[in-house]
Each structure stands twice: as structure tokens, then as C-alpha cells.
Amino acid sequence: MNPHPITFMLTALGAMAAVFGGLWTSALLRLRREEPTPEVGQEFQKPRVAEVLTGFVTMFVDTLGIGSFAITTAIFRGLRLLPDQLIPGTLNAGHSLASILQAFIFTAIIPVDAATLFLMVAAATLGAWFGAGIVAAWPRRRIQAGMGAALLAAACLMLLAKLQWLPPGGTALGLTGWWLALAVAGNLFLGALMTLGIGLFAPCMIMLSFLGMSPKAVFPIMMASCAFLMPVGGLRFIQARSYSPRVALGLTLGGIPAVLIAAFLVKSIPLAALRWIVLVVVAYTGIMLLAAAKRGQRA
Fold first, then answer.
1. CA angle, corner 65, sides to 64 and 69, nearest 5?
2. Residue 234, CB-side half-sphere exposure with 13 Å CA sphere
3. Top-confidence residue, 294 or 119
């Protein structure tokens, strides 16, 4: 008997976790052996409580479908945990392992067309590979401007969803033909944007709902896409040392138990009010990043 195609996806997720975890551990050990350098955020330190709690809170709401990147960025800036130019790399590296666990759970329990899933994941991963190589070399002001614009776009999508101005979605578990080609091209673009710090969940859900897919079937696509693209992008940021090792490790330590609790133990939570709070915080953070970029341009 041939194994089910989804079995290959679950095996690949396990392999991705092993590869990313091994390479990141090697990088952290190498960093620990090195003498301290003047590079901001590149010293090896143990995560602080605030960083672990940030990982827990953001991956908890991420598992419930709200997304993690936008709210994590808002917390980073509100608590001043790290410089703005290190935020994209820290997001991709720090949330990777928890996202792989998340994808493993939802891919195993929610039915979805295997061909659609595989192609969408491949496109997002390819986009992240190219996007991370570009963003890792950007200066601080450009990253601030890019993240600010991305967060405002995310806030607009959240608002449209709250006002129910977006399509409710169809019943399809997969796509074919030109619709599939359009979705793959869109996920390639969204994978590149993920490396800048804009989450994939909301735009991917909207895109696939427009194309007639069931919102429930979109969950494994969104989560598996992030589970593959984030380690790929994260490793490029780690290689370029364009991230904070301490903060990223804190996100990982807090995020993994949060995924397990949200996926298996939480049955209901008042998400409506929470989504409004996240929307306001994300919009405010986007505006502040754009203002910071403008001040840097004047300077």
C-alpha cells in the first residue's frame, strides 16, 4: 500500500524541524564560543522572561488564527526588546519551530487537497528564500518603512474581515487549473513578504477564499506554508547575523507550549474583542515605524 500524500508532508515537516533545529543550535553554540562583538544584539545571552512570555502569547493567538508577526512586532517595539532592523530576522527564526509544530497538528487533522497544499508550500518557501536574502541586507530605515507599510496593510485586512466585507469562502478542499496557478503565484509573493515581517495568515485566507476554497481547508495551507518558509528565511537571517539570538530563543521557548495548549486544551475564547485590540495595536505600530523611518530620512 502506498502511503497517503499527507504522510510525506508530515515527514517533511519533521525533517525541516530537525534540520533547522540542528543548524540553529550549531550557530548558537558557535556564537557562545566567540568573544563578545560590538554588533548590536549578536551577543549570546539567556532569554528573559519578557521574551518567553511574548513567544507564548503571540503563538497562542497565532494558533487560534489571528497571526503572530504583527502582534510580535508591536510588543517588540512597545517593550523595546531589540533594534528595528533585527525584527524581521528574529520573527522568522524565533517562531519557526513552534510554527512547524502548529502545521504538523493542523495538517494531520484537517482534510485538504494534497496537490494544492504541496504547490502552495513550495511557492511560499521559494519566496522566503529570495526575500530573506534581500531584506537581511537592508538598512534600518528601509526595514522600518517596509514593516510600517506591511503592518498598515495587515491592519486594513483585519478591518475588512471584521466588517465582513470579505468573501466568506466556498467549500472546495483544493484548486485546479488557472485558479491553482494564480494561488501559487500569490503565495510566492506572500512568502517573500513574510521575511519583511508581514504575516501570511490574513492575506492567504482572503486570497483562497476569493478562489472558492473552504476557510477550514485554508488552515493547513497557511500553517504548512509558514512552517517551511520561516525556517528557510530564518536560516538566511541567522547566517547573515541579522537577528537577535536571545530574543529569538525566548520566542521559541514560549511558543512551543503555547501551540500545544491552544490546539488541544482551549475550547473557546472571546476572539471578537481580541481581534479589535490587535487591529488597533498593529495600526499604531505601523504608523510609528513609518514615522521612525521618516525621521531617519531627515537625519
1. 110
2. 32
3. 119
CB 223 within 8 A of CB 109: no
Instruction: Please report the pLDDT score of residue 201 as a whole number.
Output: 74
d(CA 61, CA 98): 12
Cell numbers 474583542: residue = 273
Residues 6 or more apart whose CB falls under 8 angstroms from that of 16 comprise 100, 227, 228, 231
**Which residues, 6+ apart, have CB-to-CB distance to 132 below 8 Å?**
89, 92, 195, 232, 233, 234, 236, 237
The string of DSSP letters for 107-173 reads HHHS---HHHHHHHHHHHHHHHHHHHHHHTT--HHHHHHHHHHHHHHHHHHHHHHHTT-S----SBS
SS3 249: helix
| Angstrom distance (rounded) from CA 299 to CA 286 | 20
Percent of the chain with pLDDT over 90: 22
In the chain, which ranges are continuous DSSP H helix?
A: 5-33, 49-63, 69-79, 87-94, 96-109, 114-135, 140-162, 177-194, 201-210, 215-240, 245-264, 271-298
236 confidence band (pLDDT: 50, 70, 90) = confident
Which pLDDT band holds residue 1 (cuts at 50, 70, 90)?
very low
Partner residues linked to 172 by β-bridges: 213
Taking the alpha carbons of 42, 46, 49, 54 in that order, is the dihedral positive or negative?
positive
How many angstroms separate the first and last alpha carbons of the chain? 66
What is the model's pTM? 0.80
